[in-house]
Amino acid sequence: MGGILLVEGVILEGAHIVCPVMEDRQAIISTVEQIPMAYYVVGEYQQEWSNWWIPNVSCLRDWVTSSGFSIKDIKMAEGGTRAYLLAEKNIDLDLAEHIVL
Q: Which of 91, 14, 4, 6 is CA-nearest to residue 57?
């Protein structure tokens, strides 16, 4: 048990600012900001093949906390296009629930 997690990456809330493909989708995305979701964008987001999923902040929080971390700090930067997160491991998860045999 123990450890820290540092996360930095794109978030859905400001995707329309840096990616032309997302401009037309901004109105829809803004209506679901409170719902944890990640948008599947393989190859679309900034025309980069390695961009597969863009989470909104709510989804990022849930990913981190469901992995046994407590969030100490989270900030949005660059007009809401990126998030920076600091978390601390505080829960030992039962690995049996994550292992597929």
A: 14
Radius of gyration (Cα) for the chain, nearest Å? 15
Q: Is 55:63 a contact under the CB 8 Å cutoff?
A: yes
Boundaries of domain holding 14: 4-98
Note if the pTM is more than 0.70.
yes
Question: Are 25 and 54 in contact, with CB atoms under 8 Å apart?
Answer: no
Tally of domains within the chain: 1
Q: What is the DSSP letter of 66?
A: T
Amino acid at 12: L
32-90 pLDDT per residue, tens: 888 998 888 777 777 777 778 889 999 999 999 988 899 999 999 878 889 999 999 98
- Identify the helix (H) or strand (E) that includes residue 59: helix 57-65
